[in-house]
Design brief:
Blueprint (H helix, E strand, L loop, with lengths): L5 E4 L4 E4 L2 E3 L19 H13 L4 E3 L8 H10 L7 E6 L1 E3 L5 E5 L3 H15 L6 E4 L35
Parallel strand pairs: 3-4, 4-5, 5-8
Antiparallel strand pairs: 1-2, 6-7
Helix pairs in contact: 1-2, 2-3
Length: 169
Amino acid sequence: MSALKKVPLGSQGLQVSAEGLGLMGMTGMASGQLSVYGAADETESIATIHRALELGVTLLDTADIYGPLVNEQLVGKAIAGKREQFTVATKFGFEIDDAGHMTNGFNGRPDYVRKSIERSLKNLRTDYVDLYYLHRLDTATPLRRPWGHEPAGRRRQSPVPGPVGSDGR
């Protein structure tokens, strides 16, 4: 594996490869009905992720909305047996119902954030993510609320204790 320069991301000590791999185009959207960059090819996508690692690109960026859920599942397959070699970032905020369908809404409530991270961990086949961040703002939820902050900045219990290394701050 080649080594790319590591750079800090945020202020919580996370170090990532200077280049990352955005994964949205590796799966379709809307349960495969919408293709952003052309037809998805799982074998080629996994090979691309493995080649990125060989070149020193260790930051993988996905989201629960890609697919929806299918992209995180692809990443889970690709990083199996190599999890410690990657920095995995995923996002939440678009609401996905229990059947795995987009609701066309946004949801930043702490209970939904907990549900989303638990689902992402299952899809990614891991017990933690390195970076978990807000993809779209739910304007009905104050920005600090998804992370368990009181409006005055007093910290409450985080809705995602343990499995998240950084929230991007």
